[in-house]
Each structure stands twice: as C-alpha cells, then as structure tokens.
Amino acid sequence: MYEWIKALHIIAAISWMAGMLYLPRLFVYHCKAEIGSRQSETFKVMERRLLKAIINPAMIVTWLAGLYLAWSGHWFASGWLYGKLLLVLILSGVHGFFARWVKDFAADQNTRSQKFYRIINEVPTILMVGIVILVVVKPF
After folding, report:
1. Residue 59's closest CA among 90, 93, 24, 13?
2. Is 77 exposed, middle or buried (0-12, 13-18, 19+ CB in 10 A)?
3. How far is it, in rounded angstroms, from Cα 102 to Cα 9?
4. What is the CA radius of gyration of the chain?
5. Pick from 104, 100, 105, 97: nearest CA to 127
6. From CA 105, how far away is CA 120, in angstroms rounded?
7. Closest CA to 137 of 80, 87, 82
8. What are 67-123's pLDDT values in tens digits?
C-alpha cells in the first residue's frame, strides 16, 4: 500500500506544480486583456477552472498522501522531512495568494503588473527544486 500511496503522492504533486506554474502565466496574459473584453472573461474561466478543478484537489491529495507516507514510513524522525514540510507550507501559502489573485481578476480588481506575475511565477519553481533535493538527497 505504501508504494501505491507514494505513486499517488507523486502524481498529485506533479499536478499541483503544473497548475502552480501555469496559473501565474495566465495572470501575465490576463493583465494585457482589456477589462470586460471577451479575452478577459475567457481568462477568468480558465483561471477559476484551473484552480478549482486541478490545483486545489491536487494540493489536498498531495498533503494527505504525504502525511500518510511520513507517518507510515516513520519519516518524522528525519530532519530533511521538516525542511520539506517548511517548503511545502510556503508553497501552500503561495497557493493561497494565487487563489486570492484569481478572485481579484474575477472582480476586475487586479492591481499588479505583468512584471510582478513574471517574477512570482519563479517562486513555485524554486520551492519545487528545494523540495525535490530534500526528498532525493536527504542531506540531514
């Protein structure tokens, strides 16, 4: 069962990351769209569906499967896991900001620039690199 849950955890984490990397790119393009335009309304639908149908469920499954793996694999005694948990908590916080910004765009109240979203798009990547290194290398 452990291996099946591990596979589920990896699939969910990949799905979560795919969404976390794509959503801010949508924000970049949405910034260019005129408020009320057909394009803007299309971006709103895309952002909402991506968040609700992929990113949110994938995050939940990632957390649940990951906590099960940590508990059943007795990983809570390992220092690397606490580093990973910290980075996943930060990633979850970034997820929360993304959800807030989806609501801002939906209400035509975005106040941030394309440049901001281009920069913020790198944050999930940096966190993912740290998480993968901690899991694979287990440096402490």
Report:
1. 13
2. exposed
3. 26
4. 17
5. 97
6. 16
7. 80
8. 999 999 999 999 999 999 999 999 999 999 999 999 999 999 999 999 999 999 999
The pLDDT, as a whole number, for residue 123 is: 98
Q: Exposed, middle or buried: residue 37 (CB in 10 Å: 0-12, 13-18, 19+)? A: exposed
What pLDDT does residue 43 have?
A: 98
Q: Up-side HSE of residue 72: CA atoms within 13 Å toward CB?
A: 12
Concatenate the DSSP letters of all residues of 20-59 into one string.
HHHHHHHHHHHHHSPTTSHHHHHHHHHHHHIIIIIIHHHH
Query: For the chain, give me the number of helices (H) and strands (E)?
Result: 6, 0
Query: What's the gap between Cα 112 and its chain centre?
Result: 19
**Tokens (6 digits) for 101:** 């910004």
Residue 135: the pLDDT is 96
Helix axes 2-32, 79-106, angle to 10 degrees: 40
Q: Please provide residue 73's backbone torsions phi and psi, each rounded to the nearest 5 degrees.
A: -90, 0
